[in-house]
């Protein structure tokens, strides 16, 4: 036993056990987040609850959102009549009943003993709408400009409505946006050179074009206003829902397993491809995904050359003196600075100083409305590049230190200069270490939120920072970020309970994006490592 302890075997097993527990904890956390988030898109069964409470009878239609056990004594202390309750505790059901505009809330809380009868609601329809969340009820009639249509025509009418919405979005995002740019260009031209016959003629042509586009929009909106679906809610009241407000519908209690699986895939696809709605509590997160990936890619393009050049100078050119030691200490200390401090620095230096100077030099005609002198994706990428710079420097310098001096001497002996040796021999062999630093930088930057709140990220961005208008990539625009989206939905949402599953889904998506970026970088690193393994040997 003494020899066993002296050999260090117990510490090996303890270390292996700690690593295994850590991996299991991380895996369990990811599985929990994934289950909580992805199960939200599964079409849950809808029940009809007949409730009898204190002589009053009512009906509730909805999904069982949550079930928890509550002590009877706690209910009695809260002033709830517990007469007839059996056992020390009863179940309390949180039912997602939707119909927010009629009931004022998406949820109804009911105690299990108050439920007189519970059964699947036959023929119930779940409608996902542009506003006010989901609607649960029974379809009554489908109307087209006041004329009844068979309910089987609802998918056709919905597809037609979606086509019209796409046409409206195209007119607003493309044609009207381009026209507004022309109006703005004409306004600046008149301010600089004054009114002329040419500018007057151009203004008349632009106004005529605007009138044509406005007429098209009005005609499309009139087509949307014709169709409506009449639905009976749980109180028996008939509600008319315009088809233009319906995004999707399904009959959950009549779906087969394959139908539910197809619906789950469809809903998940909409989540990652659509824009958010209803103060980020509904819809998708595509702008946040796009903003996160674009910001990380810009940060990587900025931080990699800066970090590599700094590491090359420190290891290959700088002398071993007090100044070099001071730089290394500063680099190490920068890694421990709180991220919010970088955000304050980015706001003060990049936005208010550099951005303001760019506006004064190149966009003076648009002042006092700033172009680059306001938070944007460029300043966010630069701020996170400075935040992650120490990681890349340290990792690259360690990679340079592992390259044998004999390789450098051999290259110099064959007639290569120091710069040629560095560029063609040393840096390629150190590329796996450079990629390791980049992997750590990406993992750190993709999850940062605090500095981004100061230098570019917003709750809702009206448009993506990339479009079909020159210069196509608009680095001055604000953007959405998955990390900030999680914070906003989880803590700033007007309907926190309804948005809770989206917090889990977005969190799982953020982890997936980070893992995807890291796996890509790891694959490149492993390829480079295998490529230069023979040289290291």
UniProtKB/TrEMBL annotation:
Molecular function, one GO term: phosphate transmembrane transporter activity
Listed InterPro entries: MetI-like, MetI-like_sf, Phosphate_PstA
Transmembrane feature ranges: 12-35, 285-314, 326-356, 376-400, 421-443, 502-524
Location in the cell: Cell inner membrane; Cell membrane
UniProt keyword annotation of Cell membrane present: yes
Domain of life of the source: Bacteria
Keyword terms, alphabetized: Cell membrane, Membrane, Transmembrane, Transmembrane helix, Transport
Membrane-protein topology: Multi-pass membrane protein
Domain ABC transmembrane type-1 positions: 289-521
Keyword Glycoprotein: no
GO annotation (BP), single: phosphate ion transmembrane transport
GO cellular component: plasma membrane
Pfam families: BPD_transp_1
NCBIfam families with a match to the protein in the record: 3a0107s02c
Family per similarity comment: Belongs to the binding-protein-dependent transport system permease family. CysTW subfamily.
Protein name, UniProt field: Phosphate transport system permease protein PstA
Protein's organism: Photobacterium aphoticum
